[in-house]
Amino acid sequence: MDSELIYRESESIGYLSDSEEKQCTIFVVNDSKIELMSLEHILKKKYQVILTDSVEDAKDQLIIDSFTPDLIMIDLKLHDMSGYAFYAWTKSLSRLSNVPVIFVSENFTPEEEIASIRVGAMDYIYMPFREDIIYRKIDRTILLSKLTRSLDGEVKKQTALAHTQLQRTKRITKQLMNALAETVDAKDHYTNGHSKRVAKYSVQIARRAGKTPQECEEVYYAGILHDVGKIGIPGEVLRKTSKLTDDEYTLIKNHTTIGAKILSGITELPIVAEAAHYHHERMDGSGYPKGLKGDEIPEIARIVAVADAYDAMTSKRSYRSILPQHVVRSEIVAASGTQLDKQFADIMLQMIDDDKDYQMHEAI
Which residue is catalytic, options 77, 230, 243, 316? Predict the structure, then answer.
């Protein structure tokens, strides 16, 4: 086999270049004088080497912050401390936690070989020492360690980029949803800000009901878009201050089905369409558009219905001002179990009772 082919083969299985080997520092702790001298003779031909036959001296050197070897070789059967214990000590130092380790012993039992790899050592070497095997194992170990750190760094970099992109996407999504809700609310001066308040109250109900932060975020989106179907209702009907005709009332009720249709394409978050479609259903089955009752009504719609009813009473309308807090509370109690889900109505009553100064209403 010619030298060119040998070179290619060695490259394919992974060797450090001569210059890379010279830059690598191998730290050896071994209290066998014979093994230490033998390893020094072999290693100094290719690498920078630091050797010690004392566990305490090894600890003192490794604790120095400015010193981080590329590889640590540990005698498995140190007298003052087991090789496994010394290995664990090195891993307790954050600066050395990623430095690869090779165990060395006069001989290895199969159990020791398995134990060495199991605790996290990259490889093991035993006597009689063969230069070619030692060089191969050291080069492979250092290369693998560098590759692992490189991949880990790349994963962290890509994860950070993905997180940044996700946060940006979330911000844009939230801004778009808010803008859409504001467009709907702006069609009627007396419901301006209604969607944001319903979203806020819905999240507070969900949080008190034990929902996770992720679930609460989804509830916010459902709340902010619950009335999006009103974009398809003529503004003059929405703004009408006198009694609605039957046809006008039917038209108003259509906002639930229009909203569900608009939002049905958001397949990753189906609850937004559910909230839009069913937030006017009632627990006793007298609501619309489907006349659902009890648990037939999706939970998100039951949460939003409570928040929606509360905001309707605590917001200014063309025909009245904000209702007093005690009146609002009485209305929630009266609607609990018939119009509104009792569990979520009870949570709203808790929120009202906690709101001692009646701050939870439309800003005047």
Answer: 230
Query: If DSSP codes are grouped into helix, strand and coil, which group holds residue 185?
Result: helix
Active site includes 230?
yes
Question: DSSP for 57-121?
Answer: HHHHHHH-TT---SEEEEETT-SSS-HHHHHHHHHHSGGGTTS-EEEEES---HHHHHHHHHHT-
The 10s digit of each residue's pLDDT in 257-301 is 999 999 988 888 899 999 999 999 999 999 999 999 999 999 999
Instruction: Tell me the two tokens of residue 55.
Output: 């566990």
Omega prior to 298 cis, within 30 of 0: no
CA 178/CA 225 separation, integer angstroms: 8
Render pLDDT for 160-187 as a digit per residue (tens, 0 to 9).
888 888 888 778 878 888 788 878 777 7
Residue 158, helix vs strand vs coil? helix
25-29 sheet: strands from edge to edge: 48-52, 25-29, 71-75, 101-105, 123-126
Which residues fall within 8 angstroms of residue 135, CB to CB, at 6 or more apart? 46
Determine if the peptide bond prior to 69 is cis (ω within 30°).
no
Question: Which of 344, 343, 339 has the alpha carbon at shortest distance from 285?
Answer: 339
For the chain, the maximum distance between any two Cα atoms, rounded to a whole number of angstroms, is 104
CB 21 within 8 A of CB 47: yes
What is the Cα–Cα distance from 81 to 341, expressed in whole angstroms? 67
Measured CA to CA, the distance from residue 326 to residue 305 in angstroms comes to 20
Tell me the C-alpha distance between 298 and 289, whole Å.
Answer: 13
- The H or E element containing residue 125 is strand 123-126
